[in-house]
Amino acid sequence: MSDSPLDIAPDARFGPATLPYGVYSTASDPRTRVGVAYGDHVLDLGSAARAQGAPFADVVDGPNLDALLAAGKPVWDEVRAALTTWLTDPAHADAVRPHLVERAEVTLHLPFTVADYVDFYASEHHATNVGRIFRPDQEPLTPNWKHLPIGYHGRSGTIVASGTDIVRPTGQRKPPTETTPVFGPSVRLDIEAEVGFVVGTPTEMGERVGVDDFADHVFGVFLLNDWSSRDLQAWEYVPLGPFLGKSFATSISPWVVPLSALEAARVEQPAQDPEPLPYLRGSQPWGLDLRLEVRLNGYLVSSPPFSLMYWTAAQQLAHMTVNGASLRTGDVYASGTVSGPEVAQRGCLLELTWSGKEPLRLPDGTERTFLEDGDEVTITATAPGPDGTRVDFGEVTGRILPAR
Amino acid sequence: MSDSPLDIAPDARFGPATLPYGVYSTASDPRTRVGVAYGDHVLDLGSAARAQGAPFADVVDGPNLDALLAAGKPVWDEVRAALTTWLTDPAHADAVRPHLVERAEVTLHLPFTVADYVDFYASEHHATNVGRIFRPDQEPLTPNWKHLPIGYHGRSGTIVASGTDIVRPTGQRKPPTETTPVFGPSVRLDIEAEVGFVVGTPTEMGERVGVDDFADHVFGVFLLNDWSSRDLQAWEYVPLGPFLGKSFATSISPWVVPLSALEAARVEQPAQDPEPLPYLRGSQPWGLDLRLEVRLNGYLVSSPPFSLMYWTAAQQLAHMTVNGASLRTGDVYASGTVSGPEVAQRGCLLELTWSGKEPLRLPDGTERTFLEDGDEVTITATAPGPDGTRVDFGEVTGRILPAR
């Protein structure tokens, strides 16, 4: 079986510890369908499930992950258990092999229909740096920051799949030297390296989700680049928050890692002082030891540690619903920029270059303050899997096109 | 023909000047379908269009307005012209009558699938009052206010149809007398009387919509109550804007008035000083002379004049897309609270009671600062139609249930 696509090296990308879900098409078959990455291949999950007579075949046989997301945790667990058997038990190899396509041959798409999108602000290091840069005359953290996970709604309609080109946004900015705003392409275009979560199981209006019910509602995890125009944002964001500085595009990685793949990655979150209100306390740790890497034109520029995030995704979900706001299948929420205490752990250029004052020197001899046209940014991540294995998040990438 | 449902009094509600679109069901037929309000009746638009052999029958024959919204302005105009003929030309009366149901017999539903939701802040009187109340030590209008229509994204998933009960939200608030936040039901629950707009014709990412292209993209207009928890909002909103203080519920009126019904209501907006940047200037007036009325438990408490809004909906659309953010069919955006210069023209209780310091005295002898459990709020509006007629917006109403 050594030449079987199922016989993958222990350190191969997308090994049995990950089994992420995505949506793909091929040149010869442009239908979008649900796939599972395994080594250098993608399993056509719908066709495999039908062939195996799996009871869950109907929810994985559509054009995207929507039906699987809505099916709920017992089905999620059942599908993952079946996948693990099919892909790793040699007795199933002959049956599974016809449903594999080469990963290099597939085009990946947005994996599910995005309902609402909320972006949080959960890294103490990031929030402190941004506060120092944007509001140098005030305390860097606002008085509410350690009492609640601050968040705001973003634009769902401009969440795009990895690989989508990003047109430089245009708009108003007010340079400090001017008394009135000027108009033109953004000159401080930035990234934000984040981790995204997608809700599967919905709730009714008036219902709350407790911190300990996180895994019953959240299906999976992916990477997210919250492209940000710092000059548009700085001028517009008081008093109602970011708007056009963020709404032009948000890119997500195409492979959704199920939450159940991250059991070995769960760690204690940083100590919280003051202790949060009871609705934000859980009995289980939901820190997640994801190690992100940010590359600009191929050069590693940052390695943000997700394990240091002050607020967990479980706390964010509890907060988002404490007022009775309902959840829908496909709701996305993101962590906020992931930044650690070290310079080389900062998840955006605003911090990495200290608002442009300390340019990044790239190995090709060029310097960057903010993004230039043609620049390509790629965020990747891994996490520990069981028994020394590795969970792979794939990548979210995008290239900047000139303003129109 | 005097007992015909088509023979309506000149001053009847929903006369030929309005012809609004909605989605209804009846006790005997629970399918949701597209209806047009006419006097005391509702026309089953899908069945009428099929019976008439109308070329647009397919786009009005679904469970909601989505297909009509996506069909574009030429079809919108064609449908309205046909409706006007069918309902007002006696030659069509016999053909139309079988497709009418009594308005009192229908249940109204959310009329379309909401994509993204943006809430603006376009009344100078409202923004000035709120600035004085929330930030008494600063200029009431932030420096950007007269340069751009400030807006932010709200939660699409909690936009509900008029008549839906609203559960009082729970969350964190920090009374001025406390050093740390307390948890519990909101004690400063408010309304915001607003006007909403729904996008029909979408755009691609990177594309902009000019001020003068407003009517090619926006299908119609309705009323919106942006329920607001002032105590949650005040504690959470710095620095990223309102979140849980707004996301628990937003109610909209079920009858969508097509933009083309408002030609006679178009007025010049208030003078803008400073002159806005060129992308915010249009060649046609898009002020709209909508006269709102807000009733609390049946008592008129405010009459906000929409014609005084500083920023028009056409400018808001141009601003929302200037950064290349795409539009989707079903995108909703709202004006922000409509307030005029007089006390009795203020569109929310925060302003009407000056943050609770000047309670409203209701004719039943009770007083209100903010909403009490059981309170019912209803917003209505009319606008001038052609030749002295009237355009009716129906109502958006909701009652407060106790916190859970």
Features:
SH3 type barrels, 27% strand, Fumarylacetoacetate hydrolase, domain 2, eight-stranded mixed β-sheet, 404 residues, five-stranded antiparallel β-sheet, 2 domains, globular, 26 strands, 10 helices, alpha+beta, 18% helix, homodimer
In short:
Helices cover 18% and strands 27% of the residues of chain A. With 404 residues, the first copy, chain A, is of the alpha+beta class.
> What is the oligomer described by this structure?
homodimer
The tally of beta strands of chain A, per DSSP, is: 26
Q: Number of folding domains of chain A? A: 2
The largest β sheet of chain A comes out as:
8 strands, mixed
Give the strand content of chain A: 25-35%
Rg over CA atoms of chain A? 21 Å
Helix content of chain A: 10-25%
What does this molecule look like?
- 2 copies of one chain form a homodimer.
- Chain A is of the alpha+beta class and 404 residues long.
- Chain A folds into 2 domains: 21-109, SH3 type barrels (Roll); 117-401, Fumarylacetoacetase-like, C-terminal domain (Fumarylacetoacetate hydrolase, domain 2).
- In chain A, 18% of the residues lie in helices and 27% in strands.
- Chain A has 10 helices and 26 strands.
- In chain A, strands 6, 7, 8, 13, 14, 16, 17 and 22 form an 8-stranded mixed β-sheet that branches.
- In chain A, a hairpin with a 2-residue loop joins strand 20 and strand 21 (299-302).
- The longest helix of chain A has 16 residues, at 73-88.
- Chain A starts with 20 loop residues before the first strand and ends with a strand.
- The model of chain A has no long low-confidence stretch (mean pLDDT 97).
- At the A-B interface, strand 7, strand 10, helix 7 and helix 8 of A face strand 7, strand 10, helix 7 and helix 8 of B.
